[in-house]
Amino acid sequence: MEHDAMRSLFDLDNQENQDQDNAKQPYKHFMRVEPVKRDSEILIDDQGRRYELREIGMVRNARQTTAMQVFLDPTPHVLIDNPKALQGWYQSKLDPGHRPRPCMTEAVLTQPYGGTCEIRCGFCYINSGTRGYRSQAVTTVPINYGAFVRESLAKMRTSAAGYFCSFTEPFQKLESVYHNTQAAATEFVRAGLPIFFLSRCSYPGWAIDLLKQNPYSYAQKSINTIDPGDWHKLSPGAIALEDNFEEVRALHKAGIYISIQVNPIVAGIVTNQQIVELIHKLASCGADHLIFKFAEIAYSSRPSLINIMTQQFGKERGKKFEELFTCNIGHQATIDEGYRLEALNLFAKECKKAGVTMATCYEYKFERNSRGRILNRTGVSVGRDYLTADQCHGHRVPMFTRRFLEGPFQEVEECPPSGCLHCGDEDPNGAGKCGSVFMASAKALEFSDFKETVYGDERAAYRGSNASLLVQIDTTNTRKLV
Description:
3 domains; seven-stranded parallel sheet
């Protein structure tokens, strides 16, 4: 019944927007579900699973499509054989022409589920993507994801905390069927590595048990309003707001560090005073750290997000959002610069009063000269201006490394609380405290980068001129590695 109701909702939305899609307005309706092209009625496979054949393209409105078997329960999904490789943050510290990366401590990004996300947050930049899975509200499920992660970790000499998940909800309904999040997180813990989950849903008992097994592991919730009705509209597939607060209390009681992403703040829909109330509410529930981020999306998708907020919250509140959603910085549409900075100053005061630490996430201001004139519109991160914790996600989480694949991962003890991003800033050769110029470069790590050890000589090309010092550091640290 739940699936049939969801399917009817999507079909109505598709019918309503068919003419608009045919009118070739690629950005105004970029975030909506496109018409579903079905090649069959509902069928039953040999395992008793309901499915239908759909024509799915890899981009929206694709002319070339592929017939795919879409399983319908508990939510529409397809099974895929090739999981996305483990990786680091999407962006390097310095990418010419792009905003500087603010993320401090490294993380290993996982993707136990891809495509669309059943939480269906209207502000989501992931679900505004061009992949056909997302545009048809289909989730991708990699087969045997736990085994894939185990095999990947076995090839890695360097790792960070496993992040579950920056793409979709890790505890969605499909988890009760495929257990991809649980299986993959278990492999990280077995390897002696920390993990963290980011969720708008309920933390299962196994997740709490895994978090307890490493002192650097932590729990994250994403909560961006204090109003229960607004919460349901912003994240219709999430658990109730009060249930999230209750889970924060339970995580705190279990002795788990809690980092909350107040993300995104949809100004005009949610007021600064409501965020202040949320700060104190979360603090009273036991949260340790709050991360603030205002609504943002690729500038080309700005009209679509305004349209969605207006549909969900009415013309008056939608208009307030539109009037504030005017800043174009780093090719991203976000809230007016003055409004954001004034709000962050307010939140900093209130976090101090509430006894919780604070950080920002991808918050920027324009680079200006002494007269206040804008020098460029790429943006300068304000992360270090507001940070009161060890790093942007909260407490210190170091890198882990090993020289030989047969040995266990061990903590890189030299890792500063703020991680790789600024670790080499004061060294003339750009070397980090561990001696690695490569790690201190804070590049967007690919899976191949994790195959090297932090202390090894494989990074010679990145080491700079002070080789003798680096060799000395390597020799010292070799004794700590198995």
